[in-house]
Amino acid sequence: MNRKRVGIVIFDDVEVLDFCGPYEVFSVTRINSEKRREELSPFEVVLVAEHDQAIVTTGGMRVLPDTTYALCPSLDILLVPGGWGTRKEMHNPALLAFVTAHAAQAETLTSVCTGALVLGNAGLLNGLRATTHWRSLEWMQGLFPKVTVDSVSQVVEQGNVLTSAGISAGIDMALTVVKKYCGEEVARATARHMEYPYPESTVRRVTLATNCLL
What we know:
- There is one protein chain.
- The chain has seven helices and eleven strands.
- With 214 residues, the chain is of the alpha/beta class.
- β3 and β4 (62-63) form a beta hairpin.
């Protein structure tokens, strides 16, 4: 099996479900769901941080990364989650350099929630349609005028770049990536295993005020 390596960036004050939701999706995916215990996932997931030490998430969970920006191997899929920590990390030169370098080589670039602000600050969303947590839509549009901010979609796919709405939307995004690589049948089986509703639509689940962006 030619496994795809997924790199998920983690940092202090990352939102837990932003990275754990996609981690769960990728780690439990199986090509043959009847051989769940015998077969590996077609995705190899690694957690990547700036330093080789525990990070502290929103809520206080301590998480050890698998590798660092400096030592990270090549990635097929790069995922940048969000959370309060992105307010600082979107200006972190080390993270921006890491994301820019790996985005140039990866097959697929993704973000969850305000992870899109990191991609935006790296210039990776210019000329694209993208989304983020509903509370940050107007902020995102003000920061990145070259980005068309989408307030109606749960997941926005623009070529090899996928952005998603907030927190739990990362699960929908990851299932979309599974569909892209393994087909809809496998993606549906993955959602079923998780007892999570398969995203039949890309429409955002949270209803926004009529005066919201777009």
